[in-house]
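Section 3.1: Structural characterization of target chains.
Under the original work plan, the team committed to producing a structural model for every single-chain target entering the pipeline before any wet-lab resources were allocated. The record below documents one such target. The sequence was received from the expression subgroup and is listed exactly as submitted; it comprises 188 residues.
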Amino acid sequence: MEESIPTYILAGGRSRRYGSDKARIPMGGQPLLLRVARELAAIASAVSVVARSTDAYDDLGLRTLADSVQDQGPLGGLLTALEDAGPTAWIFLAACDLMGIRISWARTLLEARREDVSAVVFRSDRYHPLFALYHGRSAGEVRQSIHAGDLKMQHLFDRVPSAVLPVPEDWDQLVNRNRPRDQEPRGG
């Protein structure tokens, strides 16, 4: 039987570029957030959402955690997820606005976990921290980064031991829905 992992979806942003809550944008007949949750369910022991408040997505039936530190961007959401899962757990972290996810990509990340790393991430010309694995032992460094005001997730991988993998060949199928004009992926 395949191992499953606590999975957290970040939906705490203000969607400034989108203009409305992009987690609720209909995609394929369902809110984008729900679509991402269902796509990741294949590897998830539980799916939780990290948002601005615990009741943000009650109507969607998703367990939702409020950011433990408000207004700290994705790094604050990661800290909330790590604190929820505990210091010995691996978690999967994804953004709510990803379309075209392939569960095989998540399985590739899971297979690359090792005892000597605290994160497993894909990298092309940059890291892809919002479709990645993190271990609870990275929480201290995440807290320090927040305390120092360095909220760029790209910098985290220089601070924690990380397994860095090349993006999958079909990674170009992934679409990050940041603006209304961003299109649904081919075949999605």
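The mean pLDDT is 89.
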